[in-house]
UniProtKB/TrEMBL annotation, chain A:
It holds the Pfam family Fer4_7. It comes from Myroides guanonis. CDD domains: PsrB. NCBIfam families: MoCo_extend_TAT (TIGR04519). It comes from the Bacteria. This is Quinol:cytochrome c oxidoreductase iron-sulfur protein. PROSITE patterns: 4FE4S_FER_2. PANTHER family: GLUTAMATE SYNTHASE [NADPH] SMALL CHAIN, GLUTAMATE SYNTHASE [NADPH] SMALL CHAIN-RELATED. Residues 753-783, 837-868, 869-898 form the 4Fe-4S ferredoxin-type domain.
From TrEMBL, chain B:
The keyword Metal-binding applies. SUPFAM superfamilies: Cytochrome c, Multiheme cytochromes. The keyword Protein transport does not apply. The chain crosses the membrane at residues 40-60, 178-198, 230-252. Residues 61-153 form the Cytochrome c domain. It comes from the Bacteria. This is Quinol:cytochrome c oxidoreductase pentaheme cytochrome subunit. The lineage of its organism: Bacteria, Pseudomonadati, Bacteroidota, Flavobacteriia, Flavobacteriales. Pfam families: Cytochrom_C. PROSITE patterns: CYTC. Keywords: Heme, Iron, Membrane, Metal-binding, Transmembrane, Transmembrane helix.
Amino acid sequence: MASNRKYWKSVEELNDNSSIVETLRNNEFVEEIPTDEFLGDKDTLSSSSTTRRDFLKYVGFSTAAASLAACEGPVVKSIPYVVQPEEIIPGVADYYATTIADGFDFVNVLIKTREGRPIKVENNRLESAYTGANARVHASVLSLYDSLRLKGSKIDGKSASWSDVDAAVKASLKEANEKGGNVVLLTNTMASPSTDKLISEFIAQNPTTKHVIYDAVSSTASLDAYERVYGERALADYDFAEADVIVSVAADFLGDWQAGGYDTAYGQKRIPKNGKMSKHIQLEANMSLTGANADVRVPMTVAEQKMALVKIYNEIVGANVSVGATSRDEAVVKIAKQLKSAGNRGVLVSGLDDVNAQLLVFAINQALGSQAFIPSKPKYVRKGNSAQVAQLIKDMNAGAVHTLIMSGVNPVYTLANSASFVEGLKKVKTSVAFSLKEDETALQTTIAAAAPHYLESWGDVVIKKGHYAVMQPTIRPLFETRQFQESLMVWTGAEGAYYDYLKSVGSSMVSSKSWNKIVHDGIAEFDAVNTVSVAFDHAVAASELAKAKKVDGLELVLYTKTGMGDGQQANNPWLQEFPDPLTRVSWDNYLTMSRVDSEANGFKNYNVANGGLNGSYATVVVNGVTLEKVPVLIQPGQAVGTVGLSFGYGRKAAMKEEMQVGVNAYALYHDFKDVQGANVTVGAGDHEFACVQLQNTLMGRGDIIKETTLEVFNSKDVKEWNIFPMVSLDHQEVRANSVDIWESFDRSIGHHFNLSIDLNACTGCGACVIACHAENNVPVVGKSEIRRSRDMHWLRIDRYYSSEESFIGDVDVKNAASGFTENFNMFKELENPADNPQVAFQPVMCQHCNHAPCETVCPVAATSHGRQGQNHMAYNRCVGTRYCANNCPYKVRRFNWFLYNNNDEFDFNMNDDLGRMVLNPDVNVRSRGVMEKCSMCIQMTQATILKAKNEGRVVGKDEFQTACSAACGSGAMVFGDVNDKTSDVAKLVEEDRMYHLLEHIGTKPNVFYHVKVRNN
Amino acid sequence: MSEFINKESCFGSERNVKIVPNLVDNHFITMKKVGNHNSFSKILFFCLAVMFSFSVSSFAQDAAKGKELFNSNCAACHKLDGNSTGPALRGVVERHDTQWLHKWIKSSSSMIKSGDAAAVKLFEEWNKVVMNDFPALSDEDIDNILAYTSQPKAEPTVVAGGPTSASNSGASGDVNNMVVLGALFVVLVLLVTMLYFVKRVLNKIVEVNGLTPEVRQTTPIWKAFVKNQFLVILSTIVLVLVGSYFAFGFMMQVGVDKGYEPVQPIHFSHKIHAGDNGIDCKYCHSAARSSKTSGIPSLNVCMNCHKSISEFQGDAGTDYGTYTPEFYTAEIQKLYDAVGWDPSAQAYTGEEKPVKWVRIHNLPDFAYYNHSQHVNVAGLECQTCHGPVEEMEIMRQHAPLTMGWCIDCHRTTDVKMENNEYYAKIHEELSKKYGVEKLTVAQMGGLECGKCHY
């Protein structure tokens, strides 16, 4: 229908003479299009060698070429061995027993190698092995393939051969000998009898030599105390399996206290058996992993901890040392009474950096007659002597050191007075640093000697008295490296190789096993005389300790993070991306602060629109040293008046750019004291954290983490503390999992895999996270991607705080609320964790639901279910709709937003040939645009089945493992075949404590949990 | 379909391009040279055979026995031609006195000890390697061996004679076809010419008679077709369907490399090793028993045999195609170069040059395949998937290696559960459940995605 009506777009059009209307009529766009800028520049256009026609030709040709090339597979070359080593069959893994001893971590491990490449660290499961590999140990295999390693020795920054190095060092030693100059060997704790012998031979030949041992994070107080009482520089050992009551005063024994390794024994006693489990009480300032696992946790400042320790001492020993009042006296007295009544089944440990405190620990444990206290067989994992290190720096500055030979230490990075060390270094004629990398120290010395990684080295380690362990190479040295020991032998002119030397030392020490058997097992026991104590006056120590005073300003408690430790492996992307078990923050260190202090000082934490967490910056001044731009993280459970900061970050030398994160806390480690008085003020700007968990509390959802107390667990019926969701069927109340709209598949035949996770035994240490990383080629995505919630971890460990004093309190609050307003306010309140919350860790991976919601929504059937209970994921079939992730109630599916290998945007280990050597050849490297998730290590279960088939036998009891269950040191994760009624997991699934995550939605998962029981 | 498959060669496949000239060559040979070559070689063969039989007959009995004895006693260290651990033995009777040889063979060590000049010289010359004593050999045996060593060297043409005669029968078939086709072509051309002339004659007749031929006004067929919408739609549908059928066929074979036969850095003949010599596959591919890969044998495995087999001689009755013994010997030399073996010094030089084989079976990374499951547990013959390897001069991919191919086999193959404790329980229970006597791999769960994709 034609119409002559006129429509106006604006009133202006009514005016016929308007110039605007005219302009608009002529110009399509109101604003001028900058075509002239582009086309008007005749010079550029004419000088361009590509004409429009050429351009089209190129486009056409490249499109055609690309599509043609896609039709043709590339020619793949295969290069077999010329002479194949007998023990290697391509495609079959070999395992070697060895020991990590990097000065910080000491564990017996098994190394899985494929075609001669170490690809994974496993626990050595032999009876007497020293287990408990933590996240760092599991990640250490990647540090072997660090592309920034020192690939050859250097003299004055220029590449040099080993013969040049030898000549230079020998000449310097000769000169030192002739002129009487001092030679100093500065090493980390090696606990190696053969190295000790070599050093003594070196000293015999160069009499002016002094050997100084330096631990980056000092344990001098404990060592001094032990030396005073037991006459030896070592650390008393503890066996928590023998303790019913554990009182820990700031000892993070599930973390790095005394090099850790206590998880297994601790975990055993945490699983309630016959109505009993150990009771764990923790007094501490920072919220540590150990504190998070405690039944009772009392946050207090370090000064108060010292006073509390004296009070406990008074109670146990019956002394009457006068001591001031603490804020929690009532709790302390109760703890002391509980410990006393436990008698020899009680134990007290302490991580206080104070000789007197450590002396009191001995006194208390001796008075208790504690069975868990084993001073007779001490540990040799820390030997550093801070006083000697301080003296060395003085000597160096005085010009009294002629030659300095360092191994395994990085003092320029780890010393608080690093500047003075560097100054002193200039006065040393020859300085040698044996180092894996061209680190801060190696850059300053005259000679940077390339040292091999522990997986390329021979060695021996005595972790504790009577326990001998061998370190053996699992790969030929990748670079032109030579061991410190080998070099000592060259410089002393000793005959033969270090291996022969090691063998003769080891064979003479151990008589119970042949040398080959020792190397095969990695460990052996030898007879050693028990260490006995001498009398000491602990009353003096107690009265000294009672004088403890609060420091000025906030109490800064320096600590080591589970993921980073002392910072040796700071260039390890797995560890950088590993979220801290407590804060769930990766790629950073930060100042942990209590809510009260943050509010008082104006520090803020808030979430931004994309879910990322932001925090204020702080300026920290300690002893005149200022640390700028330290991000502040509000940590529930942090003792008021204290702040925490972790070591190991802020490194710059030999680090990839993305990994140069955090601030260097060593700068504040004045006088090797881990407690400092700090002046903390608000700095400018906000920091962007990469935190993987948005929700801090459980919000009273008692069906995710089920929890009860030992009292209820022992006295009440299972229905009261492990409440099963019920639904109505035919007007009858029935268990939710008995009703189903699906037809069930009969799984009673063949294998049916289940994974059991005991929330009581899980300490949240995260070894499983890294083991999963290594086993399944999980990519590292980097800080900014983590911040966008695009982390790729197949296995995460959720950490929940309670909003009330306990989780059960949360549930009560939630149930009591009624009406909209009350509910609304109540939930708002529940979002805030308590000042001293209970903490629960929950590892969550794909639950392998028998009735999986993800499987039904996949439009291309890329995810499907196997007879053996595993939820399969066929990556090559996946088109990336992400429906499955949306439909997953557990949020365990991970989407590959980008190509994470061979991509310069993600410059981590998968971007270089060396770093890719760690990849597991049995597992796909996923590409961009596909969904991935935990496969329940199907490559491992299939390999176990195939092994049995090849050998013509049934699969052995508990032979099935996944990477996480194999890595779990505390016994929290147990994997197996529930159809094999003899297996552990079949018994666990029948236990009263068993529950499924979100059981009411009827997914019937193959992963199940055990109700957490607290002994408070 | 075949037409489309051939198209693959257009896409510049290296392997296909290499096959084509060979085929062309063969045709030229067969078409042009066949006649003469055939008769000539027959005559040559006959003459040689006669000559050979004469020369052989003079030693007849002795040499045959001698060959047997030589192979069992001497061949480990000696060859007829060419030095090995010991010197070449052809014509040894010309170098040494027969009596002296008898003594030497029976006990060379005692001769050296007694200080026999020739013996000591020989001992010194050959790096003081003591030759084994053979006291058990009788004089007659030694004579037989010496007779065998005195035979003149066989001419290589004898071996080469085989293939040419063999290829003739196939070629003559081609010729017959060509003749028939040629004749048909000539007939067709004749017909066309005849029709042309007939038309011309008829036109001339019309012209002569003064008639104009009636020209009917007809719509061209394509216009009629365009006007008929039904036909257009129908044919479009047919075209689309046929087009997508062929397009689908073409797409599906992209990346399927069945028949892939790349040129390898060393011409290794599976036919000679696995076929003629009957070496078990798993002697070289030993990892197939225990690993996911069958393993390309490392060169030290080759050297187990090739330390003493340094040249190719071949068997008289076997067909080696166009390959000459010299060619094969040169390939063995390539192995020596790679492994760093000096055949004249009988020692490793230490200069290794690993061989870069071209991988033939390229299973994609997202598919997990384990040889030991199939070879050791299921007891499959290698040939089931790799085809008649023992007949392949050049190794090629026999199976398509597509998922459909895997699955088809899993659907139809029974699980081999005999004498395997692992299967006992599960097989009993599952077969009862499915009501079958024997379970297929599929029924055991062999079709599940996650069994191969992880």
